[in-house]
Amino acid sequence: MIERRTVFKAALAGGGAVVLAACSGGEGGDAQPNPDQIPPKAVLSAEPPVDAKDVPVTTPVTVRVAEGTLTEVRLTNPDGAEVKGELNAEKTAWTSAEPLGYGRSYTYAAKATGTDGRPVELTGSFATVKPAKEVRATLNPIDDAEVGVGMPISVKFGEPISDRAAAERALTVETSTPVEGSWAWLSDRQADWRPREYWPAGTKVTVTAKLYGVHYGGGKYGKADVTTEFRIGRNQVVKVHTPDHVMRVYRDGSEYKRYPCSNGKDADPNLNTPNGTLIVMTKEPTSIFDNARYGYTDVEKKWCCRISNHGEYIHENEENRANIGKANTSHGCINLLEVDAKDYFDSALIGDPVEITGSKADMPTTSDVMDWLLDWETWKSKSAL
Fold first, then answer.
1. Contact 138, 211 (CB under 8 A)
2. CATH number of 23-127
3. Helix (H) or strand (E) holding 345
């Protein structure tokens, strides 16, 4: 804990040592103070104080003077480089304008002139906190991305975070149109933000994660700030009611296209295309599918849109042509004819919602992209704030 006290060294105009007040007297008169022994009126102080240890790197450094004005303030790092700062209009306070570095010593050199015209100085140093580990974070979507109306914002940390509230307080979301949303921790390494309802089409989003200097607990600190700006595209939602063998695509709430499909086997819940609202996670022109348990490896399919980390895709399967639009015979994926798979692939954005109903099984909430599988109240309960 930083000791809240003020230490300064004052250089008197005459350069003499500070002593207890002394008096001199003349003949028949009262004793008079010696002007050289009266302390200057100006008082310099600094925050953090001289000799402070474990100083936070993002808290502004301030130097102030009472009963005077500042004439010079220099705060230097161990390399001799000056920290940027600004004086207020009255020249009574100087405040640093950039973050400090971890595990470094900084030196004060400040001067002021008091209302009595006498100079004072402040010198000394303090040391910043040295993390046990600096933790990097990443943000998704990336800058300039155009994504679907179901796209969550995801912050992933390189280490488990114990003080989630501290990390979450450093995260802000700004939108070009008002959008209700909330952060939720999906694991001790991941916090996602999603809107209560799908994003309004065309919304511009700015995310700022001011994580540098944030203490995550256990001596772990944020390594750097991260930001992203992205845009929500048109409103496109896929709906599949598995018994119908039809994949419907909606634009702005109206049916836009429909494709015959074959979904996961109805008789085996382990092979169902599970119920739930998912999103398009990746778009892969070709993908390799392996499932030794069911007797296939290195099977290549085209125009593949991953919709879960549980193994489900929307993709072409000409080998299953006889059942497409007629029967559910896949191992969980949504099978389309090649021409339809290509047509849908070309229209899809990462983050487009895919709503699946009618199956015997529900999508498990074990994926790191399970945002729309939780109702709103459950989602909000996962916030650390």
1. no
2. 2.60.40.3780
3. helix 338-347
Helix (H, G, I), strand (E, B) or coil at 36: helix
Q: Which of 261, 304, 315, 331 is catalytic?
A: 315
Catalytic residue among 261, 304, 305, 333: 333
Domain boundaries, the chain: 23-127, 133-233, 236-373
- The model's pTM is 0.86
> Please, which residues have CB within 8 angstroms of residue 35's CB and are 6 or more apart in sequence?
none
* pLDDT tens per residue across span 274-333: 999 999 999 999 999 987 777 778 899 999 999 999 899 999 999 999 999 999 999 999
Q: Which two tokens stand for residue 254?
A: 């109206």
Give CATH for domain 133-233: 2.60.40.3710
- Rounded Cα–Cα distance for residues 13 and 139 (Å): 56
Whether residue 276 contacts residue 319, with contact meaning beta carbons closer than 8 Å, is answered with: no
Tell me which of 3.40.50.300, 2.60.120.260, 1.10.3720.10, 2.40.440.10 is the CATH number of domain 236-373: 2.40.440.10
Indicate if 333 belongs to the active site.
yes
DSSP 138-155: EEESPTT-EE-TTPPEEE
C-alpha 231/C-alpha 245 separation (Å) is 33
In angstroms, rounded to a whole number, what is the distance separating the alpha carbons of residues 156 and 135? 10
The domains spanning 23-127 and 133-233 adopt the same CATH topology: yes
The answer to whether residue 310 is catalytic is: no
